[in-house]
Prior knowledge:
By secondary structure, the protein is an all-alpha fold. The chain has one domain: Orthogonal Bundle (434 Repressor (Amino-terminal Domain)), CATH 1.10.260.40. It contains five helices and no strands. It has helices spanning 2-8, 12-19, 23-31, 38-48, 52-61.
Amino acid sequence: MRKLREKFGLSREAFAPLLGASHQSVYSWERGSNRPRPEVIEKIAILRGMSKRQVLAVVEQHGPKAQKPAATEKKATKKKATKAVPE
């Protein structure tokens, strides 16, 4: 998303009103924490002279990579206790 905005040479604050969004929304799209709504994708496509599919491909290509699970989220393995057998 950032690359698309920078091709216009615009700041987030200047780009956001063109899309009917806030600069905070543009920031979150660029970070990958949120995705633009379909109507925003359509506006970007019109502004850039691209198809919606092309815009989505750019958003996907430059979006966040799949996150690895944190150490605390890993599945804990439990060891079964073995009972002591008297001899």
